[in-house]
Amino acid sequence: MKQMTAIELKQYIETNPIDTVLLDVREPWEFERCNITGSVHIPMGQIPSSLHQLDSSKETVVICHHGIRSYQVAYYLLRMGFSNVINLSGGVDAWARDVDQTMTIY
To answer: Which of 39, 49, 58, 105 lies in the 20 to 30 Å Cα band around 73?
Structure first.
């Protein structure tokens, strides 16, 4: 599985914005507090029952608070046949610190 830092993801989104899915797997209260613009929100516990909402052929960047839950979900997606999955290392916390300092940190 690929890993990407917040800065790498920002640069990547700027050059490849069309087909990349940003999948935020945090809880609803976390997503409401802060999120990366354009993210699709499906909490981690709902991923198995929501796979039909995702396209396994699209590149998917999985996002959580610090990168631990997203790593678990990314690994699960790979086992379920997703072909191109990336974990956001450091999660939205790293995004808020390194990319968007106006984002709420919790």
So the answer is: 105
Nearest alpha-carbon partner for 91 in 74, 60, 70:
70
Q: What is the pTM of this model?
A: 0.95
For 30-73, the pLDDT digits (tens) are 999 999 999 999 999 999 999 999 999 999 999 999 999 999 99
**Rounded CA separation 67/49 (Å):** 22
Strand partners, 23: 40, 62
Burial, 73: exposed, middle or buried (Cβ in 10 Å; 0-12, 13-18, 19+)? Answer: buried
64 given a catalytic annotation: yes
Catalytic member of 36, 63, 64, 74: 64
